[in-house]
Structures are given as structure tokens and as C-alpha cells.
Amino acid sequence: MEIAIRPKLDRADVEALVRKHLPGPIEVTGHEEFKDGFFNAAHALALADGRHVVVKVAPDKSLKLLRYEVDLMATEIECFERGLEAGVPMPALHYGDPESGVMIIDRLKGVSLPKARSEMSDAEFLALRREIGELSARFATVTGERFGYPRRSGRTVADSWSESFLAMVDDVLADIAENGSPLPRPAEEIAAIVHAEKALLDEVTRPALVHFDLWDGNIFVEPGENGWRVEAFIDGERAFYGDPIAEIVSITFGSEVEQAASVEGFLGREMTPGEERRLALYRVYLMLILIAECDVRGFEEEQTVGQRGWSTESLLKNLALLEADRP
């Protein structure tokens, strides 16, 4: 899929980056471009010495992006560095430069979860969902200095989670207004519903690292001696420091049984009513992002129609939950 903001690089461009940033000598024996991502360019190179790496390059800084997408490569590099230190399964990071928007990581041996799903039994898949929950919980063991996105502008950085999260929501609503993205309800109403939960958000007192993009396409798996296992998580561009419960948003796409398995792995228990309510807030936020990005990514029409459709449906569902269950 062609994405308007994704950098267009050829093999020579990618080889030059690897020769510049990895110890040599470098002899390239194979090249593959990945076109299923929606933001960075990603190219795989096979090297004569047996190494297999992926080069990621961020969009040009002059392009129109959403507010939270500024310094996104810096965010991903920090997510990789701190996640790996905490024992999160992620590809090894060989080079990362947020200024030039380049990072080089190991190429994984496995495949994305959607590609492997048909080869698993339902029991194997549920066991894998529990493992995804358990391993993704390691992100939350990392504590940030303050809440918010780890970017230089500091737009959403704050000492309280409520101040930070409400700024994040206000930013994406500003993007939506600026770009004329369609909303099913007035932005002022959505903002009021979210801002009414300030006290609930203030129950979160530790800024934990949250990947916030662990949908199945960003989870790589491989067969092991005892069945399928998680090899690694990828793509930490959306990471922030906040409420660990926000991680549950992306690991619980699927049936109720699959969602329950992921939550069991992540928490080791059921969610409390307060956590369920905060989860609805984070789903509202993600759906707003997905609606907003349709107007800056340059999606094909079919992708835009589909993404707007199901994200709008989820947005309305979670806003209704917040309104109906308001204390």
C-alpha cells in the first residue's frame, strides 16, 4: 500500500545508511522493502556476514503530521532502549538517531501474528494471547520522569496523568478541527465527556511506559518446542508514559474470550470498575487518532472509508459507556 508521507527510498539509499552507521565492511546480498506500515519507511537488508537488519526512516519533518507524531522516531528509539532494558522481547537496536530519523534493528525470524493465525488451534491462540498479555506488561515496569509523550516539545509532559492525558486528547481534537476530519459528535461534547473524568485519571500516580500500538500486526511469533511463542514486539512510535491500563486497548482486539485471555496475562486478574472506565477513555483517544490520521497519511479511499467506519463505531460505543456509567 502506498502511503503519501512514507519516505521513498531505493536499495542504494538504504545500503548507504547501513554502511554509514554499522561497523563494516558491509557487503549487501539481499534487499526487501516492507510496504505494510503506515508511517516510516522500512527496508530489510541481508549482509554477507550473516546479519539481517531492518532500516527504518521517518517521514520528512516538513510534512504535515498530527501533533503527537512530532519526534516520533525519538519516541520509538526510547521505547526500544527502555523496553529492552526491562526484558521486553524486541529486536536488537543497532543504531538510533532521532535527529536524522533513522534506526537500524535486527530483522526478526518469525512472522506477524495475523500471518500465523491459520496455523494455530484455538487453544494455542488463547495461550498465545495470555503470553502477549504477560510480556507486554513488562513495558509498565519502566517508570518515566513525568507523564506524557517523550518528545522535545514537551506539549503533553506533566506531573499528573490527568493533565497529560487531557492535553493528549485536546491535541488530537485540534488536529481533527484543523483538518476538517468528520466526527460523529461535536468535538466540544467529546472533550467535555473526557475532561469530566479528571478525578478518575488522577488515580494514576506513576508514569509507566505504554507501547500503545500492540495490535496483532506488531506482534511477531514463531513456533517453538511447546507450540507458538512470542518472538518480539515492534513499532514503538505511539509510546508514552502514563496509565498501564492503556496498554490493554490494543492487546484486546478480538472476541470476548480472546480479550479475557489477554487481560488475564497482563494483570493476572479482572479489571476493577475504575480500570474499565479508564480503558474506555483510552479507547476514545485511540479512535480519535485513527479518525484524524486518515487526513494526513494519504490513505487510499478504501482504507480511509473502512478505518473511519469502524473507529467511529468504537468511538460512539465508548463515549456512550462513559455517559451511561457516570458516577
UniProtKB/TrEMBL annotation:
Gene3D superfamilies: 3.90.1200.10. InterPro entries: AGP_Transferase, Aminoglycoside_PTrfase, Kinase-like_dom_sf. Pfam families: APH. Residues 40-270 form the Aminoglycoside phosphotransferase domain. PANTHER family: AMINOGLYCOSIDE PHOSPHOTRANSFERASE DOMAIN-CONTAINING PROTEIN, AMINOGLYCOSIDE PHOSPHOTRANSFERASE-RELATED-RELATED. This is Phosphotransferase. It comes from Glycomyces niveus.
